[in-house]
Design brief:
single chain, 93 residues, alpha+beta, 3 helices
Length: 93
């Protein structure tokens, strides 16, 4: 698939927001952009193991590079959350 170049990964217009219900000091984490997906996966995830977790990291990077859509990265985050037993709540604006 041809690259379309880096996307603005802090832009939230294309990302349907999610609330991750996690353990630890930041129990509720709002995710509104690819940048926030990357931050949650790298800095707040309870484990750095798991098939869906690794896939979500790769998918997020691919979306930031413009190879795939933001929706695909969002879906990968939800699968990784399910694998890690993190509740996901869809946020309605």
């Amino acid at each position: 698939m041809p690259s379309t170049g880096l996307v603005d990964w802090h832009r939230s217009e294309d990302f349907a927001p999610l609330m991750l219900v996690m353990s630890g000091p930041e129990k509720h984490r709002l995710v509104r952009s690819l940048g926030e997906v990357a931050d949650a996966l790298i800095n707040a995830w309870p484990t750095d193991d798991g098939k869906e977790y690794v896939a979500a990291i790769k998918t997020c990077l691919d979306a930031i590079q413009g190879h795939i859509s933001v929706k695909v990265a969002r879906a990968a985050l939800i699968r990784a959350a399910d694998e890690a037993r993190i509740r996901v709540i869809a946020v309605v604006d």
